[in-house]
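Risk register update: the risk of archive-format incompatibility is retired. Evidence:
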Amino acid sequence: MFKLYSRSASYQSKNGVQFTLKFDEYMALYSDQMLNSMARSYKKDTVEKRQNQYSNYALLLTWKSRQDKLNGVMNEQTAVIAGRAKSKHNCRYLPDEERSVADRKKMSDAKIGTKRPEEVKAKISETKTGVPNSDEHNAAISAATKGVPKSAESNKRRSEAAKAYWAARKAAQSR
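Archived output:
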């Protein structure tokens, strides 16, 4: 158990957290059920497997709330032993909290290459259909596209689409 405490202390200290939790306070955070579960893991020699970074059953020293994490002091009032999912839940962003540029970049990079499901695309389309762009938005689009040369290939596609449109329109009028 001291090994887990030491790992937690060095991890938090390395991340700039003021770590004032003593070992006996750390042990007091464990419930009897958690200690019994850890004892069974020690007997089976599966502690390292259970406590690895991919295990959903790993017990972690974590924060009671996001606000405690933002304060940056880990002590007996701000710390709790919890499973990995509970830890993520406790440290989620607060509703009014602004994410940093690095966090936004990380989230953006994680989404690159993933496609939206068809039902999501349909909902987005439904909410945007019929809503006109603002004058500022149209001006921004115009400014972004002015002076950008168009390839012969895109000109040909546009030409074919326009011819097909007018042919269909002419056919509909002659009925």
